[in-house]
Amino acid sequence: MSMYPHGRWAWLPLLFVLTSCTESSVLADPKLQELRAMTEQVDGERLMGDVRALHAAHLSDTPLDHTVWKNQELLAPHWHSHTRLKSGELMESRLRGLDLTVSRQNTPHERLPTSNVIARLPGVTRPEEVVLVGAHFDAFHGGADDNSTGVAGILELARILSQYRFDRTILFVGFDLEEIGGYGSYRLLSSRTGSSEKLVASLVLDCIGYYDTTPGSQATLPGFPSPRSADFLAVIGNDSSSRMASEFYALSRELSLIHTVPMLATGNGLNPLSEPLLRSDHALLWLAGERALFVTDTAVFRNRHYHQVTDTPETLHPELFRKAVQSTLAAVAYWAGGPR
Question: Could you tell me the CATH superfamily of domain 12-335?
Answer without folding.
Answer: Zn peptidases (3.40.630.10)
